Amino acid sequence: MYLKQETAKLKQEFWTAFGQYMSPILSAEGGHINWINYKTGEKDIFFRINADNKIALIAIEITHKDEALQELYFNQFEQLKTLLQSTMGEEWKWILHTHDSNGKTISRIYASIENVNIFNKEDWPKLISFFKPRLIALDEFWINAKQIFEALR
To answer: Angle CA(68)–CA(73)–CA(79) in degrees, nearest 5?
Structure first.
């Protein structure tokens, strides 16, 4: 039981520290933003950041329960792939219809790094260095892309 409490505490410490580190950074539109709980403004599109004892992941997740609509959203992102890659400065992985940790069908566009451990404070600088530029770039991408998704509502 202690191990679960300790791991939960370390995770909370990391995300609190990361949130404090990111809080002075303004969004691409110049406003304050909650980087850890980024609001896309679209009901079924989420930006997720996660880390565990093996891997760190930043993702765009499409969670619409209708798989055909989920695919439509995914295809729209594919139309924006060049913009996404140029804004991110790297290629991301694309998976149509996978499953999240709860077994729900989602589609995911993501980047990850391995051999990092959120429970090891010595890895925190690597995690921050991975998440920070990608979150900032993802925000910049979204400023340019979100109007297209608003039209799909």
So the answer is: 125
- Summarised one tens digit per residue, pLDDT across range 24-70 is 999 999 999 999 999 999 999 999 999 999 999 999 999 999 999 99
| Structural domain for 39, as ranges | 2-150
Angle at 80 between CA 77 and CA 84, to 5 degrees: 100
For 58-78, the DSSP string reads EEEEE--SSHHHHHHHHHHHH
Burial of residue 45, with CB atoms counted within 10 A of its CB: 0-12 exposed, 13-18 middle, 19 or more buried: buried
Residue 1 has pLDDT above 70, yes or no: no
Question: Domain count of the chain?
Answer: 1
Q: What is the CATH number of the domain that holds 136?
A: 3.30.1460
Read off the tokens for 104. 């729900």
Among 66, 46, 48, CA closest to 57? 48
The pTM of the full predicted model, rounded to 2 decimals, is: 0.92
